[in-house]
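hey m, so remember when u said the tokens were messed up on ur end? i reran from scratch. heres the input so u can diff it against urs
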Amino acid sequence: MAVFPLRSPSQKTGGIVYFGRMLDKIRVHARGELPTEYQPNLGKGFDGSCIKFLRVKYDELVTRVNGGASDEEALRWCFQAGHHPSDEEILVWNEWMRKRGWNDEITPILARRKAEAGLSNRDDIQTMFGFIDVDEGRSPRV
């Protein structure tokens, strides 16, 4: 099996979960290789949450990334153009994102996605990050 072109949402870039995955989506989409089912949510969903957290505009980040910015350069730009969160803000962000789908308003979405993927019996998948990892062929991170 080929390695899925997006990193796990749990993987940190500059200490921040999900950010690197969003950059992967931007780059893979620019190459015309992003699976079609991922395209409608570009800049929305978790991407949108991450952009709001960093207080930058998605289109401006896309321009930077497609212009060749590395992960670190893109994050540094976000900190300069938007918001440089404190260590405590990053901790809260990471834990909030890591637990999305577990007893919150998107729990029904997680249940639906698991059912659509034939994973309803997987009680070990309790968060969206866990679902994404399993759906993309990785073991869920705890």
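this time it looks ok to me. The chain has seven helices and two strands. if urs says something different then somethings off w ur setup not the seq
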